[in-house]
Amino acid sequence: MKLRIRGNSLRLRLQQQEVQLLEQEGIVVEETCFGEQSFSYSLVSDKIGTAIRAELESQSIRIFVPTEKIKEWANSDDISILGDQQTPRTTLKILIEKDFACIKPRTSAQWEDDSDAFPNPNPSCGG
To answer: Rounded distance, CA 55 to CA 74, Å?
Structure first.
C-alpha cells in the first residue's frame, strides 16, 4: 500500500493482494522505520461507520472505510473510493485507489515492485 500526503489530502493505492486482504481480514497496515521510531498507516474496514474518515494518533494514521463500500469496490471494476472529512479548520480529502501497473518501465524499479499491481486498463497512456 502506498500513501501520498499533499496539503489536506490523503491518497492510498493498494495492490491486488492488499485489496483482498482488506476485504477478507478488514485491515491493511504499512510501517516505515526511522531508526528507533516508526510511522504506520492503515486502512480499516469499519462495520459501524457510514462515512470515510481518518484519525491521526501519535505516529499512526488510520483510515476507516465502511465495510459495504469496501466490498462493492473490491468486487467491481471501480478504481477508487473518495471521501471528504470535515474538520474544524478545513476539509480532508481521502482517496483510495487500486494500484495499476506502470505502462513504461520504471527507472527506479528496485524501489517499487509492480508484480501484484492491477493490470492497467489503458495500455496506451503515458506514451
So the answer is: 23
Q: CB 69: neighbour CB atoms within 10 A? A: 19
Give the Cα separation of 125 and 30 in Å (integer). Answer: 29
Predicted confidence (pLDDT) at residue 116 exceeds the cutoff of 60:
no
Give the cell for residue 96.
483510495
pTM, two decimals, is 0.81
pLDDT tens digits along 57-79: 999 999 999 999 999 999 999 99
Can you give the residue ranges of every domain in the chain?
A: 2-98
- Strands, E assignment, 1-127: 2-6, 9-14, 27-34, 37-46, 53-57, 60-66, 80-86, 91-98
Q: What is the CATH code of the structural domain delimited by 2-98? A: 3.30.1360
Let me know: does 39 contact 25? Beta carbons within 8 Å.
Answer: no
pLDDT higher at 121 or 87: 87
120 with 105: CB under 8 angstroms? no
